[in-house]
Amino acid sequence: MTDDKTISKTLSFWLRHRPDAAGLTLEPAGWTDTDSVLAALAAERIDCDWERLLSVVEGSDKQRFELSADGARIRARQGHSVEVELGWPQTEPPELLYHGTVERFLAPIRAEGLKPMRRHHVHLSPDEKTATIVGARRGEAVILTVRAGAMAAAGHVFFLTGNGVWLTDHVPAAFLSGL
Ligand code: HQG
């Protein structure tokens, strides 16, 4: 049986980056038809019926996916490289947010701040523990502290996703400590 991680990775790839690879079309807010996703999984010989999909969505450690109330549509909550307007509310950030990265990125971050790289936004964590998990995906985590309150006072805007990730366009190095 296909494991949950394979299903989750396949969904992330299609719903964030390459809907065309599965013959899917995303609506402006990133939604697509759940039945089409199930059909695309079947076409890839990935063993996943509706119950399984629901359990992958609900069991996702980071709550990466969201189903519409009637289950007819599904989307990724964030992390897209395709153009989507997710509509997360602009939210006043706490005084401090955190970003987990690794040593080898510190020199460019010092020079140009945090950039979205291949995503639409810079992703920030509400606490150091979460940032450590994010950074550790790439090696030994280095935690940068973001003076989010000061950024907001300077006119930067923040969005809060349904699964607690803070998004912003760019964090200038002047608002970072730990570099
Ligand atoms: C780094 C995962 C060079 C940045 C995670 C990071 C998170 C720079 C990498 C979510 C830079 C981008 C987001 C600059 C930033 N020069 N490197 N100027 N500015 N970077 O994956 O924050 O599994 O796009 O430090 O758990 O690591 O996808 O962002 O190391 O929640 O659901 O460039 O993705 O969630 O990497 O992770 P990413 P991230 P999912």
Topology:
Blueprint: H1 4-17, E1 32-33, H2 34-43, H3 50-59, E2 65-67, E3 73-76, E4 96-102, H4 106-112, E5 122-124, H5 128-135, E6 141-147, H6 148-153, E7 159-160, E8 166-168, E9 176-177
Antiparallel strand pairs: 1-3, 2-3, 4-6, 5-8, 6-9, 7-8
The chain binds ligand HQG.
Ligand HQG binds next to helix 4.
Low-confidence regions = none
Helix content: 25-40%
Please give the number of β-strands.
9
Mean pLDDT: 95
Largest sheet: 3 strands, antiparallel
Total helices: the number is 6
The structure class reads alpha+beta
Strand order within the widest sheet?
Answer: 1-3-2
Describe the structure.
The protein is of the alpha+beta class and 179 residues long. It folds into 2 domains: 4-76, Arc Repressor Mutant, subunit A (Orthogonal Bundle); 97-177, ADP-ribosylation fold (Alpha-Beta Barrel). 31% of the residues lie in helices and 18% in strands. The chain contains 6 helices and 9 strands; from the N terminus they run αβααβββαβαβαβββ. It has helices at 4-17, 34-43, 50-59, 106-112, 128-135, 148-153, and strands at 32-33, 65-67, 73-76, 96-102, 122-124, 141-147, 159-160, 166-168, 176-177. The strands form 3 sheets. A 3-stranded antiparallel sheet has the order 1-3-2. It has a 3-stranded antiparallel sheet with strand order 4-6-9. A hairpin with a 5-residue loop joins strand 7 (159-160) and strand 8. The radius of gyration is 18 Å and the shape is elongated. The chain starts with a helix and ends with a strand. The model has no long low-confidence stretch (mean pLDDT 95). Residues 62, 64, 79, 101, 105, 108-109, 112, 114-115, 117-119, 123, 134, 138, 165 line the site of ligand HQG.
